[in-house]
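Give me structure tokens for this 229-residue protein.
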Amino acid sequence: MKEIQQSDSGPVAQECPDAVATPVKRPGGARALKAGLYTAVILCLATTLAHVALVFLHVAPASTVSKRFSPQINAWVYPFFEQNWRLFAPEPDSVNRQVLARAAHTRSDGSMKVSAWFDLVAEDNSAVEHSVFPSHTAQNLLRRAWTSYTDSHGGDDNARTERAVMMQKYLSNIAADRVAARNAGTVDFIQLRVVTLPIAAPGAAVGNRPPTPVENRLLPWWKVTTHGK
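Here you go.
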């Protein structure tokens, strides 16, 4: 620190011996914020790289690495990051599916109350037809859930893999949510019935008889533990 003194020749600056310069210290909060920011950036980059690597192994041809880490890859990809080539080579459905659901509730006296069948697809179709901007959920959620269920289960309803168990719970939760919202009651068990109807070829004569179902599949009762009021 300098002192300014007056003299005959003008002001003279002199050093003050007892003055000590104080270093500027960065607050602890600023250092913690900077460290937290760096950590968040590193975690985001690591997650992004891991996501890209797992999705690449999922869509790439089968290899030693993808076969070895297949459980980890499937656990990350399904059901939210599933990838396929239908965007570039779409395969239109050749059938219409009617997905019906009914619920069962155990009464206080131990008897079982079973609801009537509820058409889930009809509800989705109504939401699409009467909406200017129909949601992607109304158009594809139930259809993709059923397709994934059949892909993982095959022709029967026995879940033999972790993914099959996951898709069964996924489909069961969708149906239970719909039925519970409609009936405003408790759902203890849920059952689905899927009727597959063929789509007539263009130009085919339309008769008075309804089309014969290609498949009428009745699924077993599934226990529901997290739905109801």
